[in-house]
Structure formats: structure tokens, C-alpha cells
Amino acid sequence: MNMGYSDNEFDVIVVGAGVMGSSTAYQLAKRGQKTLLLEQFDFLHHRGSSHGESRTIRATYPEDYYFGLVDESYRLWEQAQSEIGFKVYFKAKQFDMGPSDAKSLLSVISTCRKNAIPYQVLNHRQVAERFSGRIDIPEDWIGVSCELGGIIKPTKAVSMFQMLAFKNGACLKDNIKVVSINKDGDRGLKVAASNGEIFWGKKCVVTVGGWMRNLVKTVCGIELPIQPLETNVCYWRIKDGHEVEYAIGNDFPTFASYGHPYIYGTPSLEYPGLIKVAVHGGYQCNPDKRPWGPGLVPDSLKQWVEQRFKGKVDSSKPVMTQLCVYSMTPDEDFVIDFLGGEFGKDVVIGGGFSGHGFKMSPAIGRILADLALIGEAKGVELKQFRIARFEENPRGNIKEYEDQVGLLKSTL
């Protein structure tokens, strides 16, 4: 520890202790930086995007630029687990399915080819064989089976990063709501909290999820197009005698179904006898005044559960639902960049993870730490994640497969 510091002076202050901020604080502390991690609510709270029982991890994306982040994250999940001594990542295969002409699914296949990800394309009959009748797809659909799947335990993972950050010397403070970040001459950045506390940092990383748009607007006037959505995660009861067929460790995959709506799920893990199947999407919300559900369960989701699992899962209604916040960008791509302006490279932001960032949080923490410390991120292309893309085109990155992007608000 550098003795030239007062108690509220740090090398880097990380604002927001969800998975991204906690992963970043771990990376910074591990590199010997005097690090402060601030959270506006209790640590491990349920008001944001980083709590709950499971998240999928997969390498199959229509956008090929996610593969490097996922690939690095697989290694870093294993590494962090080995440092803490318990598991947050459980292996499974990944299975993607959809109409054989769905552009986004065809893009998944080309991503696999481009990145040499081993995969198999299966027709209706081969899918029934491959999964012993547990999954049934229509005759005009295809399935893509890939070894690189798995489940992450989210709350446990956030706790792991916080414990490892602490173990490496980071200072952790919760129930501290940051209200302003200002340049303060020689002292670097002045970070003020609503309770009157003030902290100084040479650099600052902002990872506040659904609160990103409000905080960034307050800090520098930039209006980022990051819209919080409240999403509803559904658990369905597996019928008697079939529970073990859909459980993790039994060769049942994490899965995604392309088309309208886009559906995803995990094998039975956290609740015995229940399987998680949900729609990717939700309703616009104010993160401070959320409706807290109950959230609609579209008929299309019930039909999907009934048909894909051949009646082995009760599709009448989910037995349980949980709520979570997505921070959506118009193109569903992340925002990882310097704030710029008067802050130059001193303030780094990571947000807009659009419901698919959790799995990549170990790599994103490494990247945000790199940006804060050396002003660039090694070995990764971040041009798709710049703030400036929205000035060039309000919809952000152009996608060839509009069938997946922007369907959220219309499908539900």
C-alpha cells in the first residue's frame, strides 16, 4: 500500500458494484492499484442486473466480435474460481435453434466458422436423436450444437469478485450513492456521494447498469441511449418422472431459440424440478420506480415450452418468476469507452450490456482496468463499443440480421 495517500484518495475509484464493477475492482487490486469500489445500495442487492440464480455462457453469437471476449472469459472464470476455491461456472453444451432461414442463426454458424468454434448443424430428426427426444424442433428448423456453453451463478460470482478484490487490498463501500464526478486540479477526480462523503481518484470507472444514462448525463451532459428494461425470468415445472432428463450434468444444454420471440434457457440447476425458459426482452422502466412485475408471460412462450419439450414440461404457467433489469442500447451492443471531453481518458465507462454481458464480465473487467491504467485495451477491438457510434447513427452498429435487434419492445 502506498503510504502517500490519505484515507479517501485512491488510484482508481469504481462506481457501481454489480458484476462489471466488481470484476474491474478485482483486476485493479490484483495489479497493486489502490482501489475503491462504491455501490449505491447494499452489496449483492436485487435492484439491478447482477443478481439471481443463473446466467448462460455461450460462444455462439451472430456478431463475431463477441467471441474474443467470451473466449477470454472462460479462462478468467476458471482462474478466479481457482483463487477463491469455489465454483461459479458449471459446464454444459450450448444448443441454438430456429428457422433454417433465420439470418441471425445463419450468422451464428458463420461466427463459429470464422473463429474455428467446433459446432454441428442438426436437422429435426438429428436433434431428436442427439437429445434423446427431450427437444423437438419443427421440420423447417435447424439446430446448432456447440461444446462451449455453461451456467454462471450470478450473485455468487459477484460475491467472488468482491471477495477477491478485498483479498487483494481493495476498499469496498456500499450504500454510497455517487452524485457527481468532477476534475479537481492536481488531485485528479473528485467523486462526491449523496451523504456528503468525498473521495479522490486519479482515474474513475463507471459501471452503474440501469443508472448509467442518468449518471453520465449529470456528470458531463452526454445523453447515452441506454434504456433500462424490466425483464421477467420464468421457471417451469418439469413433469413427474422427467426431472432428471432436463437437469444439468445430464447432457442437457443451455439453449437459445432464434426468431420471434427470441427465447433462452438453462438446464434445471438452481431449483430442482424446474427449468428456466424466458423471453429475451422486457418493458421500459425507471430503475428507481420500477413496476416490480408481475410481468406478462406471452402465449408464444407457453407454446414454445409445450412444443419444444414434447409436453414433458408443464406449459400452463411458470411456477415462479424473477425480475431483472436489462440496460438496452439500440443495437444491443455494449458501451465501453472513455467519457472524453474535459475528462479525457480519466473516466472510463462500461454499460449498455443489453442482457448479454454477464458471461463476459471477467474479460470486461480486465478491459476496463486496462483502459483506466494504460489508456488502451490490449488484444481486443473496441470500435463497436464506442459512444461515438450513436452520433454517426442513432441506431448504433448496423446489423445484417434485423430479425433479432430491436424486436424487444414489439414482441412483448
Quick summary of this structure?
It catalyses: sarcosine + O2 + H2O = formaldehyde + glycine + H2O2. The protein has helices at residues 19-30, 67-84, 103-114, 124-130, 154-167, 212-220, 299-308, 361-374, 389-392, 408-411, and strands spanning 9-15, 35-38, 55-56, 89-90, 94-99, 119-122, 141-146, 151-152, 171-173, 178-183, 189-193, 198-206, 227-237, 254-257, 263-266, 274-279, 283-284, 320-328, 335-338, 347-351.
Write out key terms for the chains shown:
25% strand; FAD/NAD(P)-binding domain; 412 residues; 10 helices; globular; D-Amino Acid Oxidase, Chain A, domain 2; single chain; disordered C terminus; sarcosine oxidasee (formaldehyde-forming); alpha+beta; FAD; eight-stranded mixed beta sheet; EC 1.5.3.1
Question: Could you describe the 3D structure shown?
Answer:
With 412 residues, the protein is of the alpha+beta class. It is built from ten helices and 20 strands. The protein folds into two domains: 187 residues, 3-Layer(bba) Sandwich (FAD/NAD(P)-binding domain); 159 residues, D-Amino Acid Oxidase, subunit A, domain 2 (D-Amino Acid Oxidase, Chain A, domain 2), CATH 3.30.9. Strands 5, 6, 7, 13, 14, 15, 16, 17 and 18 form a nine-stranded mixed beta sheet that branches. Strands 1, 2, 9, 10, 11, 12, 19 and 20 form an eight-stranded mixed beta sheet that branches. A hairpin with a 5-residue loop joins strand 14 and strand 15. The C terminus is likely disordered.
